[in-house]
Amino acid sequence: MKAKMTVNKCFEIDAVDPRIYGSFLEQMGRAVYTGIFEPGHKTADTKGFRGDVRDLVKELKTTIVRYPGGNYVSGYNWEDGIGPVAERPARLDLAWKSVETHEVGLHEFMYWANEVGIEVCMAINLGTKGVDDARNIVEYCNHPGGTYWSDLRRKNGAEKPFKIKTWCLGNEMDGPWQIGAKTAEEYGRIAAEAAKVMKLVDPDIELVACGSSARWMPTFGAWEATVLEHVYEHVDYISLHSYYGNQKNDVPGYLAKSIDMDRFIGSVSAICDYIKAKTRSEKTLNLSYDEWNVWYHSNEQDSKNEPWQKAPPILEDIYNFEDALLFGCLLITLLKNCNRIKIACLAQLVNVIAPIMTEKGGAAWQQTTYFPFMQAASHGHGVVLRHNIDVSAYDCEEFKDVPYVEAVAIFNREENEIVVFAVNRSMDEHADFDMELQGFDPKNIIEFTEICDYDVKQVNSSAAIPVSPKTSQAASVAGGNISATLKPLSWNMLRIGLN
Ligand code: AHR
Q1: Closest ligand 1 atom, residue 72 Cα
Q2: Measured distance CA(15)–CA(316) in Å, rounded
Q3: Model pTM?
Q4: CA 208, CA 487: separation in Å to the nearest integer?
């Protein structure tokens, strides 16, 4: 099969906001306890945080981490996680039917984020809490001092404010499973009032309002429109969440699911623009895709879990090769929409539907999905170029005209290179990939790596990491154009040096 991609230096989509490589760490399952935090582990630092996990997180190059939930945040009292650890209460976490001891709370998490060099995106509780709590937590985290909450932070050991810039106004408030779920009217009102007081405390913060918790929610669309009527002028982003799975064991159908993500982004952008037009606003609202991933492998196991354990092993999906391919298509889709998607959070980061897994007392290791993310977050910076791709397409149960090759090209001015990420969705045909770089003068192939040639069900484990990128020689510069071979079922990264 032939695949011809054309880009032109004059035609850009937008610059990639580094926060598109965000992630998410919820205070649930083994994300925190025996994930990032395990006092006594042989790699633990003096505060009990695992050094092996820290190194893998750093290598992943994630930029921002959403915390502490997720469903968990809607029943969370953040004050339970401050002050002397021995005095902190253990509480029932109703969202995940677990027991939370608060051994790790706000200060410990901020310490960890600082150690790994990631910005924090803090979510507030708009389930069981409200406007007063919203202003208090911003004052505690961001006000320099001289007030009740800011001085309490200083007393608890943080002289300087945390300066958290990005805040989520609750989580999935449309979902019947959410603690304190709300109608769009109820949520729109409380979110607008919470946003007002939070920005009064710190005008430099940015706020994310909750969109629908999934595109399949019956209230999707109407929820966004109603909520935005209330919050449009008070917030900076609206959220999108999606999880995908290959429940039908249909590989072509599964790999096409990134089209759902693309349509979701298009629809939410259109709703934002409708409210912009209706209210004659000057402002264009951007999007925060603050939960996205594959999630389905652990569902059956989790339904058998005993309730009220501390740090139970839940949502521990083990990802295979086909998951990494869909994951790659999802990453490409986010990048192609970088004019609207400014924040995106891979949900989640450690142990819970995560690219990084740990064994209690043992090793930390990379899942198959770790590698496409790491490559994109390491090299996918600069300006996404508009492109045309000529390639054949297929139909599957859910979608028509699915292109066999999904790709994106990013021009990195600082490095003077173009980086292409591409997935070949074909099960049996390689793609002769030709790229015309109008307005550029390509010099060399800096690097061409591929993840391919595995059984679709191949997984990684603590014992072996078979699914990972391998260098290929099958790419060259000829007559100002690029050609490369994209193997059947492959994730590819091509870095092109420019003159
Ligand atoms: O990431 C797991 C859960 O998925 C989050 O807690 C929730 O927001 C979503 O439904």
Answers
A1: 6
A2: 34
A3: 0.97
A4: 40
Q: How far apart are CA 205 and CA 184, in angstroms?
A: 24
Mutate to test the pocket of ligand 1, among 65, 71, 121 (most ligand atoms within 8 A of CB): 71
User: Residue 430: which residues within 8 A CB-CB, separation 6 or more?
Assistant: 1, 424, 485, 486, 487, 488
Q: Which ligand 1 atom is nearest residue 95's CA?
A: 6
**Centre of ligand 1 from the C-alpha of residue 351, in Å:** 14
The Å distance, Cα 176 to ligand 1 centre, comes to 13
Q: Is the peptide bond before 68 cis (omega within 30 degrees of 0)?
A: yes
CB of 172 sitting under 6 A from ligand 1: yes
> Which residue puts its alpha carbon closest to atom 5 of ligand 1?
70
Does the C-beta of 179 come closer than 6 Å to ligand 1?
no
455 CA → ligand 1 middle, Å: 29
CA-nearest of 165, 130, 106, 96 to 348 is: 96
Atom from ligand 1 closest to the CA of residue 293: 1
At residue 476's C-alpha, the angle toward residues 475 and 480, to 5°, is 135
Q: Is the CB of 75 under 6 A from ligand 1?
A: no
First to last CA, the chain: 30
Q: How far is the CA of 362 from the centre of ligand 1 (A)?
A: 27
Sequence-distant (6+) residues with CB within 8 A of 312 are: 29, 30, 96, 98, 305, 306
Active site residues: 172, 291
**What residue type is 74 in one-letter code?**
S
Most ligand 1 atoms within 8 A of CB, residue of 65, 67, 172, 178 to mutate: 172
pLDDT in tens, the chain (499 residues): 999 999 999 999 999 999 999 999 999 999 999 999 999 999 999 999 999 999 999 999 999 999 999 999 999 999 999 999 999 999 999 999 999 999 999 999 999 999 999 999 999 999 999 999 999 999 999 999 999 999 999 999 999 999 999 999 999 999 999 999 999 999 999 999 999 999 999 999 999 999 999 999 999 999 999 999 999 999 999 999 999 999 999 999 999 999 999 999 999 999 999 999 999 999 999 999 999 999 999 999 999 999 999 999 999 999 999 999 999 999 999 999 999 999 999 999 999 999 999 999 999 999 999 999 999 999 999 999 999 999 999 999 999 999 999 999 999 999 999 999 999 999 999 999 999 999 999 999 999 999 999 999 999 999 999 999 999 999 999 888 999 999 999 999 999 999 9
Ligand 1: does its nearest atom lie under 6 Å from the Cβ of 298?
no
CA of 18 from ligand 1 middle (Å) equals 23
Ligand 1 atom with the shortest distance to the CA of 175: 10
User: 431: which residues sit within 8 A by CB, 6+ positions away?
Assistant: 1, 2, 3, 391, 404, 405, 424, 485, 486
Run of H or E including 323 = helix 321-336
